Model the fold of this input.
Amino acid sequence: MKMRMGRVVVLAAGFALVAGGCSSGAAGGGGSARATPGTSTSAAPKPAVPRQASVKWADRMCQVTKLLATMKKNSAHEVADIADPPEDALIGPDFTAMGYLSEMSSSLDEVAKKVGEVRPLGIAPADRLHDDLAKEIERVHLGVTGLNDPGELADPMDGSADRAERVGRLIASLETPRPGLAAVTAAEPELSAAYRLAPGCAPPKPLPRAADGTNVGACKDGTCEILVKKQTRLVVRGWTLRVSLTEDKATVRNHDADGAVGEISMAAGGRGTFADGNGAEVTIRAVAVNKDGAVLKIRAK
Done:
């Protein structure tokens, strides 16, 4: 088998009481009053945040938010597979758990790095959101780092499935602060415009049209382009494939006619090939993958 993976501005004013003095003279005399003028001062308005800085802030915060959402969904899916392995699982749950632990640690490293790259804007609600989110990520990151270290165990796989379950609970407990990013940006005119301009805040593009739609039968002759929205079994000439999905990956497992088993995981644009000893091959390309499914192009020869 061969695989190719592809501030709101606050005006402060000071007020001085008007001090008045009155005197009255003898009858018929004139009176006079004198007042000391009051004075007021105001702080100069704070300069607006440069548009470029606002767009960069929104873009990075959107990236972090999306990464967290994807990580949580993928984590839930993988923990379920460890607890109840698929019938055609290639490796045992302890090996799967070790891979999961490594993946979650790397994902949290990436999220922590990205949130650390977000610079303060000087807009109180925005900076508060960032700081609260950074604290929440640090809480979970520290917990996962501790569970990902088997310590002095002779065999690092000992208890890996149990540790994976505990990491899964930590990941699931990760919550974004409220009010969230959408609410904070909507309430701040500067950020509202920046949010609309930031590439990372754009909604995901819809999946492209698949030539054969969801018709898995089109794959029997060895060539098809199909839309997969859930776990699906495909027959491609002499190959039996099972497709499963996460938020950002399509995983294809192969059972060939001789009973050999293989697995390929692909993000959008990825490609992988299964081959047997007789020179037969089946290649799968992930045209697109998102939360709604995957468009896969498959060709056997």
Remarks:
- The helical segments are 51-83, 93-116, 124-147, 160-173, 181-187, 189-197.
- The radius of gyration is 31 Å.
